[in-house]
Amino acid sequence: MQSRRDFLLQSTVLTAGSLLLPSFTYAPKKTQHFGVQLYSFRNEMAKDAIGTLKQIAALGFKEIETARSQKGHYYGLSPAKMKSVCDDLNMNLKSGHVHLDQNWQQTMVEAVESGQEYLICSSMPSKGQNTDNYKKVAEEFNKAGEACKKMNLKFGYHNHEYEFETENNQVLYDVLLSNTEADLVHMELDLGWVIVAGKDPLDYFKKYPGRFPLWHLKDMDMNKKVSTEFGKGGLDIPAVMSYKKASGVKHIFIEQEEYANNALESMKHNMAYLKSLS
Which secondary structure element, helix H or strand E, spans residue 217, and what is its range? Predict the structure, then answer.
């Protein structure tokens, strides 16, 4: 099955070993609300967007993050209709994955109409695994952040594993963090791709406190380098959840790209897993 990483960008796969995180006890507050990245239900959303949203709401999800699809950013629905459906289901359309491209102005206009808060660039807008390109992209991100701010939106970036490659002993993702303004570029840390890259999310929470208001909570099969159900992969979920405050996270979106059976059953498992941590 094609992963979202491959769907968005042809990139060199970075081979990494398993990462062992320290173990902590996590006791989530009963008011913890989890969101879902709709790419997890990409096939279902393409066939029946409203029906799938009803199923997602029934699982207990309270926040939604969209992903660009062949039917647009809102799966064939208008931005206002997407907002209305989510409101009716007691879900908050909070964020959306988009491209920073020639249609950027229209993308922002649609986001305002949808009522969402964040626009997240889902992959690097230009090729070049080197510090020069990442510094150039950082400037583009700062400008995009400024444009979003003027429209009462927040701009952000979602990583894969390739951003953690190095040039001249510099981690490219660190170059991006160091050259973007924290109040303009809100990082969405995909925890699954971080560990695939051989890095420790906790190190980033400590080194860049408060820089990660959004997460993709994703467990990964470290042998196959694909996502899996919670508790079956290499991410120590209780450990990272214990560092929520340090990371600055406000919104946690569950994303799973591959499944043992199907998306609905995997998400039932994931929600039950999180409930078991309390």
Answer: strand 214-217
Q: How far apart are CA 199 and CA 250, in angstroms?
A: 22
Which structural domains are found in the chain, ordered by start?
32-276 (3.20.20.150)
* Type of residue at 225: K
Neighbours of 200 (CB within 10 A): 17
User: CA nearest 93: which of 129, 49, 71, 62?
Assistant: 62
Within 13 Å of residue 138, how many CA atoms lie on the same side as its CB?
Answer: 18
49 sits in which H/E element: helix 49-58
pLDDT digit string (tens) for 259-276? 999 999 999 999 999 999
pTM, full prediction: 0.89
Token pair 């701010």 in the structure block, residue: 149
Burial 135-144 (b: 16+ CB within 10 A, else e): eebbeebbeb
Q: What would you report as the CA-atom Rg of the chain, rounded to the nearest whole angstrom?
A: 18
Please identify which residue in the block is written with the tokens 């470290």: 222
